[in-house]
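testing teh design pipeline on a random one, pls ignore if ur not involved
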C-alpha cells in the first residue's frame, strides 16, 4: 500500500523532514522512499538542504538519497547555496553533488552569488579550483619525468610522458616543442613537424618553435622550407647561434 499523501503530494516523511527527525528516521527504517518528491518535483533532500537541516541531510544521504535530484528551481545544492546554507552546501559537496550543474541557466555558484552568501561562494569556488590544481600538479610531475627521460636519451618514454601531460595541459607550447624533439631523435619527421607546427601556432614569436619546424623539415629533406623557418627564427633572435648554424646547413643542402 502506498504511503498517504496530502493534496500537494506531501508524504508523512516529508512532514517529518521538517518537524521531527526521530520520526523521519523511523519512517526511513521502515521503508519510506527517501527520494520521493512532492507534486512540484521538490524532494526531501531539497527541503533539508534549503532549510539548513544538516542532521536530516546527513540522514537522507546515509539512507541512499540521490544527491542531485532536479526540481524546477534546481538541485538541493542550488537550493542550499541560494539560501546561504553553508553547512548544507559542504555536506552536499562532500557527497559529490554536481557543482557545475546548470538549471534554468543557473549554477550553484551563481545561486550563491545572487544570495550574496560569501561563505558559500568561497566554498564553491574552492571546490572548482581543486581539480584544476590537481591537474597542474600531475602535469608538472609528468613533464619532470619526461625531461629526465629526454636527458637519458630515452626518447620513446619521454614522448609518452609528454603526451600524457598534454592531455592535462593541451595549451603548453613547450610540451609540443619537447615532444617534437623526441620525434626528431627517433627519426619521425612527420610527427616532429606536426608538433612543431602546433608549437609555432601557439607561440608564433618563439624562436625555438621556428627552429623545431626547420629541424623537422630538414629531416624530411625539405631544405628550402627548413631555410625559411630557420630564417624566421633568426629574425626573432638574431644572436641565436644554433639557429644561425642550422640555417647555414640548410642552405648548403
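output:
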Amino acid at each position: 500500500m502506498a504511503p498517504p499523501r496530502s493534496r500537494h503530494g506531501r508524504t508523512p516523511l516529508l512532514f517529518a523532514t521538517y518537524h521531527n527527525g526521530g520520526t523521519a528516521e523511523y519512517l526511513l527504517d521502515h521503508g519510506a522512499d527517501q527520494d520521493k518528491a512532492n507534486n512540484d518535483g521538490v524532494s526531501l533532500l531539497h527541503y533539508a538542504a534549503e532549510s539548513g537541516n544538516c542532521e536530516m541531510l546527513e540522514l537522507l544521504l546515509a539512507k541512499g538519497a540521490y544527491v542531485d535530484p532536479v526540481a524546477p528551481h534546481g538541485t538541493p545544492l542550488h537550493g542550499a547555496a541560494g539560501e546561504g546554507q553553508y553547512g548544507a552546501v559542504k555536506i552536499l559537496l562532500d557527497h559529490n553533488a554536481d557543482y557545475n550543474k546548470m538549471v534554468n541557466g543557473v549554477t550553484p555558484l551563481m545561486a550563491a552569488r545572487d544570495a550574496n552568501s560569501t561563505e558559500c561562494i568561497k566554498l564553491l569556488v574552492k571546490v572548482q579550483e581543486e581539480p584544476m590544481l590537481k591537474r597542474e600538479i600531475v602535469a608538472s610531475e609528468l613533464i619532470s619525468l619526461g625531461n629526465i627521460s629526454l636527458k637519458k636519451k630515452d626518447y620513446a618514454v619521454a614522448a609518452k610522458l609528454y603526451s600524457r601531460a598534454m592531455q592535462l595541459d593541451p595549451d603548453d607550447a613547450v610540451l609540443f616543442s619537447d615532444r617534437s624533439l623526441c620525434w626528431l631523435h627517433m627519426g619521425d619527421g612527420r610527427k616532429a613537424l606536426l608538433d612543431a607546427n602546433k608549437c609555432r601556432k601557439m607561440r608564433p614569436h618563439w624562436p625555438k618553435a621556428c627552429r623545431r619546424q626547420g629541424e623537422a623539415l630538414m629531416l624530411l629533406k625539405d631544405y628550402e622550407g627548413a631555410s625559411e623557418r630557420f630564417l624566421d627564427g633568426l629574425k626573432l633572435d638574431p644572436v641565436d647561434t644554433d639557429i644561425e648554424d642550422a640555417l647555414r646547413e640548410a642552405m648548403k643542402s
